[in-house]
Amino acid sequence: MTGRNTEYGLSPEARSWLAMLASRPESPSPEPDDIETWRAVVAAGSVPEYADAIALATTGAVDTGVAVAVDAVELADTRVHVGTPEGLAPDDRRVLLSIHGGAFVLGGGAATRAATRFVAGAYGVTVWSVDYRMPPDHPYPAALDDCLDAYRTLLKSHDPASIAISGLSAGGNLTAALLLRLQEERLPMPCAAVLNSPSVDLTLSGDTIVTNGSDDPGGLLNNVRLYAGDHDLMDPCLSPLFGRIGADWPPTILFSGTSDYLLSDTVRMHRKLLAAGVRAQLHVFEGAPHGMFAGTAPEDRRLVAQARQFLEAAWKGGATA
């Protein structure tokens, strides 16, 4: 059909991505006690040759081609990669704390460093990307502790009004859980948050886990159990959907897609934030699966543009603090 208006439909690039996903064979997750196989999974997700592809898939960023200088900050138990895009004004104090996704086991090492380049280039600000520890060797709460350490370190040099936080999938889980920890420890909140298809209910009770996923979410449950261990999955720091949202929770923008198996998580988190009086936006993209289209489609660029507009509005007035 020619002349069809595709502005609100799927782009050709998005359709190609969906066709690729449909043809890809399923690869079930190992059992939680298969430690050596999980170590191999983590190692495969950290190799340099796949770093760029994994970085885009686990952050929701896009490749803008902007040159970014990347340095590192060593923390007690992990490392943060710090990206500064070319042309950034020396007095621009805005910083985005980026927490990668990857089902708690992918996106570390070289992929985190690559993610720093893509996210800083896409958002035009300094980015701190947390290369948090992952299971099987470092289960919960190691990753969350590392994110908290990174945020505490940022507070030593930055006004919280200049800090925003973002995360995709497992990174969205850690972003929301980090905000709950900041509430609990009475630390100043950032100025805004981006929750991109956040995994906020590790009990896997959301409707779209089945309707947009599989009749057998056992593979997801294996990842959850590997990360959570014997901890109660209702613990808000594991499932932030069940946490208490305080009055100081920052303005939040949430993203998902109509084919995303975490659409229910995203929608329910949005409803919870609204009920708590938080200024929150929800954007759902037609046909988009979990993680959108890994930076390959115009839809990914539209998501980044909307998130960037939201963050720039939140940063306004605190950018040089």
What is the strand arrangement across the widest sheet? Answer: 1-2-4-3-5-6-7-8
Structural class: alpha/beta
Number of strand segments: 8
Strand content: 5-15%
Helix content: 25-40%
**Low-confidence runs of at least 5 consecutive residues:** 1-5
The largest β sheet comes out as:
8 strands, mixed
As a whole number of angstroms, the C-alpha radius of gyration is: 18 Å
Average pLDDT, to the nearest integer? 93
* SS field, number of helical segments: 10
Q: H/E order of the elements? A: HHHEEEHEHEHEHHEHEH
* C-alpha termini separation: 53 Å
Which descriptor suits the 3D outline? globular
Give a structural overview.
The protein has 321 residues and is α/β, with parallel strands linked by helices. Helices cover 37% and strands 15% of the residues. It is built from 10 helices and 8 strands. Strands 1-2-4-3-5-6-7-8 form an 8-stranded mixed beta sheet, sandwiched between helices. Strand 1 and strand 2 (79-85) form a beta hairpin. The N and C termini lie far apart (53 Å).
